[in-house]
Amino acid sequence: MKNSLRLTALAACAALTLGACSAAPEKAGPATAEPTKETGTMAKDFKACMVSDEGGFDDKSFNQSGHEGLERAGKELGIEVKATESKNDADFAPNLDRLVAEKCNIIFGVGFKLADATYAAAQAHPDVHFALIDSTEPPKKEKLPNFRPLVFNTAEAGFLAGYVAAGMTQTGKVGTYLGMKLPTTAIFADGFSDGIMRYNEDNGTSVELLGWDKKAQDGQATGDFSDQNKGKATTTNLINQGADIIMPVAGPVGAGTLAAAKEANAAGKNVSVVWVDADGVETTPDAKDVILTSVMKQIGEAVFDTTKDLVDGKPFTSEPYIGTIANKGVALAPFHGFDAKVSADLKAKLEALSADIASGKLKIESPNSPK
């Protein structure tokens, strides 16, 4: 097995700075043409754009991952790209309208909080393509031919993270918490919980999960995705209860968890973190000494592939893209500096479980899984 373990299924498995409302575009060509639903547009006439939520494009999480996919599209496809940051919810609609006025062919909204604004923009501008990352269209709304959700079944990769956390804990307790109690955050904790339960069943252990009750669909949450002090306090509380591996599902709030883990280790404890959305070692290299692994949404790949299909002239579809282990849309990140600490037996078991998930032999079920 390679030193940097990237769990695969069957034959394969994969892989935001608060600032001004409008970030400087990276240009790779002019934007002069409107999209057509049947044939797309030539690369030299194509412009792909993106609006962040309040986390910004250096959030070390899903906004950053989406932005990286957009930048990749600009470089590899030779198209013009533009990214616009939002400081708060009130910026969403104006930012989307601004990009429509700039004749973007496709506009990505990053995060569930942009759902209403992105759907409304798609309704108002049927000749522009829209893609909403991490959320489906708002409930009880009809599908729009120019609106596509890009969502991720992170319960699958979360299951693998829970399994390895249960196999690595020294205290017999691991913890998790959410930024806000939402389907897109709870799904991580659901998978994490199931992975711990499976490890206990396989090994006759009784590892305990603090911070989330899957059956009750309730647990700890900081109430936002921005207050890192709340993340630090919540993590410290979990550590004081005995948890030595913590998974924050809270975007930038998770930086507080990294800080708490470092402080605990400086005081003689042995605490590590499971990051989410992106590979935390790559996005936050100064925390590599505490990040065991990450539950990754391959948001950048979804953004790139959606853009490339349009540039190549493929018809736009409103059917949701659902990232899974099988299609490489979600994955467990490499163990990086922790690789030598993870036993060969545990790695082999993770590989086997990943293959079973991809084949459908093992189904990871969550009430929050995208449909």
From TrEMBL:
Signal peptide: 1-23
Membrane topology reported for the UniProt record: Lipid-anchor
Keyword field contains Transmembrane helix: no
Primary site of residence: membrane
Keywords, sorted A to Z: Cell membrane, Lipoprotein, Membrane, Signal
One Pfam match: Bmp
SUPFAM superfamilies (alphabetical): Periplasmic binding protein-like I
This protein's record includes keyword Isomerase: no
Domain ABC transporter substrate-binding protein PnrA-like: 48-314
GO CC terms of this entry: plasma membrane
Subcellular location field: Cell membrane
Family: Belongs to the BMP lipoprotein family.
Protein name: BMP family ABC transporter substrate-binding protein
Organism the protein comes from: Boudabousia marimammalium
